[in-house]
Amino acid sequence: MTEQVFAVPASIEGMVDDLREGLLPPAVFHDRDVYDLELRRIFAKSWVYIGHETEIPSRGDFVTRNIGEDPFILIRDEQGELRVLLNACRHRGAQVCRVQAGNTKGFVCPFHGWTYRNSGELVGAPVRTQGYAALDLKEWGLFAAPHVINYMGLVFANLDPDAMPFEQYLGDYKWYFDIQFALSDGGMEVLGEPHRWLVDANWKQGAENFCGDSSHTQMTHRSVLDVGIIGSAAAGAPKEGTGLHIHDCSGHAISIRQIPGEAPFISYPEEVTRHFHPGVLNQDQFDLAKRSLLQNGTLFPNFSFLHIGLSDSPEKPQAGFLTLRVWQPKGPGQMEIWSWVLAPKEASPEYKRRAYQVGMSSFSPSGSFEQDDVAVWPGVTRSAGTVFAEMNDVRFNYQMGMGDMSSSKPLADWVGPGVANSTNAGEGGLRTFHKTWFERMTNTTVEISDHD
Amino acid sequence: MTDAAIAAHAVPISTIQLVEIGVQRLCEEFLKLEAEYLDDRRFADWFALLDPAIDYEAPVRTVRENWDGSGISATAFYLKEDYDSIETRVKRLRSRYAWSESPATRTRRLVSNIRVARHDGNPTLMAVRSNLAVFCHRGDAAHPQILTAERFDAVRIGTGEPRLVKRTAILDAAVLGLKSLSIFI
Ligand code: FES
Ligand SMILES: [Fe+2]
């Protein structure tokens, strides 16, 4: 495979010094050459989320998805195998699939009629005996992502033939990640088709936010706090003991709100939690879930989750749900957000409907939380592109909770992996994200300690 | 409209049905008044037009092959609201910290192609189908985002003022260009 030679842009070359100071050059959110390198070094080389197996339960079911800006088809073939196929005809490149979802035994290209099985194999081309007598069908099937994994129902793909195995990529973060998907034996089920919408902000705004931007809740989401559809413990100001930030966890980060000594269990009601038991989780993981009000994180680069309980009216009880989102890049200044709502498979149909409703009402285009996030984020992207920023070497400040800035030290006796802070008055998770990003962009390893 | 997703939610009107001119006018004026309240951000007045039993939804749609149904989801929605949840949204909009609508989207709703029919066996419940275009101007952007939708409503008439009992608003977009759906449709 050819590695295109793209130099690391000058705007981020010296960024490691900024990272050490907890600073970020605006170019990361704006420059086209940075973006072009991201598509190659981040999206073409990371494990990127494609979809959930419950979206395509039957043979032939497919949905169309993207890796970076490249179009792919996620399909369950006749053998039941999950395939991630490039949506581009091997003849001269027309898109063989022009819808977002469906069920098919194969694809017939609308341009000249090359015909593929749903496994991607080429089975024929018109007038083959006259014009393609020597065509080796085996050589000309649809391109497929070289690595695809189904991890607890989540399908990830990696376009890099030399990619490290998914488990290694996930690393220690597995400890937190698994909690989201393995509380019950059946795992989590996707409820309905995804929301998709465009926001004029860089994709990293969403990705870093879910790494633990706990201090934005009080300001960005103040209107929601005012109407009382989130419990005060879950939404309160950053607080020692209840807020928990884990960063530097194999390059990923997570934010947790917990009530030590209590068992809110992410606001799932008893009818759901009675299906929960440790199973593949160990007791420490299970206990953490039990005392959690919410957990949110980003698996680098652009796959985020939020496990939380909310309501759509103060008159109605909170309902727990899991939302998954993909921050899909569409140029440096725009992203398409994809979001799904999930609930434990064992939950009743009524509960799933309720979980969907609550999830949609809070995190979706009409979500009373998310509406306000995306009202704010485009401002950052705009600031990042100012000539003033360029002229004055402007840096964004990500120093919250760093070193002397923090009133507390990382927990010495934390049960899980990563660096754990017992307060969420910090931006350590965001610093982890940008450090990982820099390492992948430059193919280097950076040693930075947040608490020297 | 044969799609189960629509049929389950609303009375389709695909033949010419003549209802009394007064009833027709009443339903048309009702939709126009509703649009006026929303464009003028008179949310309390708008909320008063809703029946407490309101079932208000805007399903997600997915691009599918022509032979593969309408692509209108029966399970995924942009809005899936009842009286309480709408009231919560309306209350939130009153907050000066509801950043998506602060400053407010300037909306201009065009409601057209209004067709009215009777629900079988219920003389006071009218099926009202209409087209909607909403021009959304945000901030200092020079160009509006335009949302178009078809709406299948059930409007209760009879004694007192008409009230909206049910709405299914089917957006034409499969990917929303609007950064947030912070308006009612
Ligand atoms: S491009 Fe597909 S058959 Fe020619
Ligand atoms: Fe937020």
Automatic annotation (TrEMBL), chain A:
Keyword Iron-sulfur applies: yes
UniProt xrefs under Gene3D superfamilies: Naphthalene 1,2-dioxygenase Alpha Subunit, Chain A, domain 1, Rieske [2Fe-2S] iron-sulphur domain
Pfam families given in the database record: Rieske, Ring_hydroxyl_A
Keyword tags: 2Fe-2S, Aromatic hydrocarbons catabolism, Dioxygenase, Iron, Iron-sulfur, Metal-binding, NAD, Oxidoreductase
Entries under SUPFAM superfamilies matching the protein: Bet v1-like (SSF55961), ISP domain (SSF50022)
InterPro entries (UniProt xref): ARHD_Rieske_2Fe_2S (IPR015881), RHO_NdoB-like_C (IPR043266), Rieske_2Fe-2S (IPR017941), Rieske_2Fe-2S_sf (IPR036922), Ring_hydroxy_dOase_asu_C_dom (IPR015879), Rng_hydr_dOase-A (IPR001663)
Gene Ontology MF: a single term: 2 iron, 2 sulfur cluster binding
Residue ranges occupied by any Rieske domain in the UniProt entry: 47-126
Iron among keywords: yes
Matches recorded under PANTHER family: 3-PHENYLPROPIONATE_CINNAMIC ACID DIOXYGENASE SUBUNIT ALPHA (PTHR43756:SF1), CHOLINE MONOOXYGENASE, CHLOROPLASTIC (PTHR43756)
Family: Belongs to the bacterial ring-hydroxylating dioxygenase alpha subunit family.
Name of the protein in its database record: Rieske-like 2Fe-2S protein
TrEMBL record, chain B:
Molecular functions (GO terms): dioxygenase activity
InterPro entries, per database record: NTF2-like_dom_sf (IPR032710), Rng_hydr_dOase-bsu (IPR000391)
Keyword Lipoprotein: no
Keyword Methyltransferase: no
Sorted UniProt keywords: Dioxygenase, Oxidoreductase
Pfam families: Ring_hydroxyl_B
Coiled coil, from the record: none
GO biological process: 3-phenylpropionate catabolic process
CDD domains named in the record: ring_hydroxylating_dioxygenases_beta
PANTHER family: 3-PHENYLPROPIONATE_CINNAMIC ACID DIOXYGENASE SUBUNIT BETA (PTHR41534:SF2), BLR3401 PROTEIN (PTHR41534)
Record family assignment: Belongs to the bacterial ring-hydroxylating dioxygenase beta subunit family.
Protein name, entry field: 3-phenylpropionate/cinnamic acid dioxygenase small subunit
